[in-house]
Amino acid sequence: MLATRVQNDLSRENAEIDRSLQAFDALIDCRFAQAKQLRLDVAEKRLTLEQGRARMAQIRAWTERDIALARQINARIETRGAEFEAAAENLQPGTKSQIAAQKAAAPAARQAVTTRATPVRLRPDPAAPEIAQLAPRETVTVTGGRDGFALVETPSGMRGYAPADTLRIGTASVVTPRSVVSGGTDVQTLAATNVAKRDNFSQSVQVAERAAALGFELTS
User: Fold this and answer.
1) CB of 35 within 8 A of CB of 216?
2) Are 149 and 157 in contact (CB under 8 A)?
């Protein structure tokens, strides 16, 4: 039956996006850990500044290569996603309208102020690499988030995740949704879950790209 085949294909696709995101996150974490260790080696005089800069350039090149590959994977994911949306709409009319409403429900960019010093991390995970530090009462732009972390952009242009409970919009706390866990196996639900997972993968690539552009510097 066509519906069963599409359901199975969507389930496999969603699982594959999860695996791809986990692999990409682990690789980028490794690159930032390498850069952190390199800064420490230079600071403690195990390497000269010149040696450190040469090695940092190599780490930056590796990271750019990793991100370029992730962009290619993301493009393929988006292409397949559009095909799945069309198939789901044919099987369950109204799927595209549900997906459009899901996208429209995403909050617009908002200005928030930090309530205390807080780290900005590469991923919405307290164990993720720290890529920036926000001062108390610093203003940032919130453009989304999940799992208790807000996706923020700092005044310097760095994007990353800050704990939502350290941010206020006016007098209100910042609230973020939980990561998507498919609650059903029907085509429409799986297609909506696919959109959310695609968005998470694309967002992770964009954050890593911005962090790599601004975060692989080595100064004296």
Assistant:
1) yes
2) no
Q: What is the pLDDT of residues 34-76, one digit of tens each?
A: 999 999 999 999 999 999 999 999 999 999 999 999 999 999 9
Q: At what angle do helices 49-91 and 2-43 cross, to 10 degrees?
A: 170
Question: Distance of alpha carbon 207 from its chain centroid, rounded?
Answer: 6
Half-sphere exposure of 185 (CA within 13 A, CB side): 8
Buried/exposed code over 178-211 (b: 16+ C-beta within 10 A; e: otherwise):
eebebeeebbbbbbbbbbbbbbbbbbbbbbbbbb
- Would you give the end-to-end CA distance of the chain in angstroms? 65
**What is the Cα–Cα distance from 158 to 201, expressed in whole angstroms?**
18
pTM: 0.87
Note whether 69 and 169 are same-domain residues: no
What is the CATH number for 149?
2.30.30.40
Q: CA of 170: how far to CAs of 110, 111, 114, 115, 135, in Å?
A: 10, 9, 11, 11, 17
Q: Which residue type does 206 have?
A: Q
